[in-house]
Amino acid sequence: MHAGRADLSILEFSGHPGLRRYATNKNDGSDIVLAPIPGLKIALPDERVFAVSKHAPNSAEVLKALNLGLKTMREKNLIRPLMRRTGMLSDTTADWHLVNASTSTKKPVKSSSTSPSAPLSGTSTSTDKNASIKY
Fold first, then answer.
1. What is the DSSP secondary-structure string of 102-134?
2. I want to staple 45 with a disulfide (CB 3.0 to 4.6 A). Which of 17, 70, 97, 106 is the partner?
């Protein structure tokens, strides 16, 4: 986009009003506003992974604390509200047409204004190297 070779980009929705993202053009310093195409969305099946090197000092304690934090967040139903605040989930787009519904490998998490604190579907996994949360 900065080079003027693209008019469209696939991104997660922003948590800003209007679901817009803001950037600065690296070439001339002008503002770039990225706005969603109203009524259309694309599923971006993904997970967040927190890597902890087993060679790092205190890695076992860090991993234990990270897993405890994820467990606590899940038990207190804090993950969905955080996903909404960052734009990963949006009540605004809940009824928008999912363009890649037939090709999506994971069923996207549908937000619901009636249960904003509903538990997140998915699993949290950990090994001696990492902890992750799948949604």
1. TT-SSPPPPP-TT-TTPPPPS-EEE-SSEEEEE
2. 106
